[in-house]
Design a protein that fits this description.
- The protein is an alpha/beta fold and about 140 residues long.
- It has 2 domains: about 50 residues, 2,3-Dihydroxybiphenyl 1,2-Dioxygenase, domain 1 (Roll), CATH 3.10.180; about 70 residues, 2,3-Dihydroxybiphenyl 1,2-Dioxygenase, domain 1, CATH 3.10.180.
- About 20% of the residues lie in helices and about 30% in strands.
- The chain has 2 helices and 7 strands; from the N terminus they run βαββββαββ.
- A 4-stranded mixed sheet has the order 1-4-3-2, covered by helices on one side. The protein has a 3-stranded mixed sheet with strand order 5-7-6, covered by helices on one side.
- Strand 3 and strand 4 form a beta hairpin.
- The longest helix has 15 residues.
- It is globular and about 45 Å long.
Length: about 140
């Protein structure tokens, strides 16, 4: 059986105008490349692996049930960092952006003792994780 890698993720957002600056800045901080851009959405892709993430403005007819990460559906996106320093740099970025940090009482090991990780929310409450796995 062939190994299949992730190709892309498409996320519909309630307010693209509010989410766009946050996610564009985050993708740039992660080293991702702008790829597609149109009035109703945009994509960034990982230059190392080719996978991309698209954010699209949801149609008004589907705005009646707001997003919450604990409902059925996508809970969070996790990005692999090269090392602890990269996680720390992105934590500083999240604080400057005013992002809500999660699990601060367990920083930086909220993901477990073998993980040096950061958790924060985007403008709509989507959880984002940045992790530097600590392997012996």
């Amino acid at each position: 059986m062939a190994l299949c890698s992730l190709h892309h993720v498409e996320r519909y957002v309630a307010d693209l105008k509010a989410c766009r600056p946050f996610w564009q800045d985050l993708f740039r901080e992660l080293g991702w490349e702008a790829w597609q851009d149109w009035e109703g959405g945009f994509s960034f892709r990982n230059p190392a692996g080719g996978a991309y993430i698209t954010l699209v403005q949801v149609e008004p007819a589907f705005l009646d049930i707001p997003y919450h990460r604990c409902r059925a559906g996508l809970n969070h996106l996790a990005f692999a960092a090269a090392d602890r320093g990269e996680v720390d740099r992105l934590r500083d970025w999240a604080l400057r952006k005013g992002a809500r940090l999660l699990y601060e009482d367990r920083w930086p090991h909220a993901g477990g003792p073998e993980c040096y990780s950061l958790f924060f929310e985007d403008p709509e409450g989507m959880k984002v994780e940045v992790i530097a796995e600590e392997r012996p």
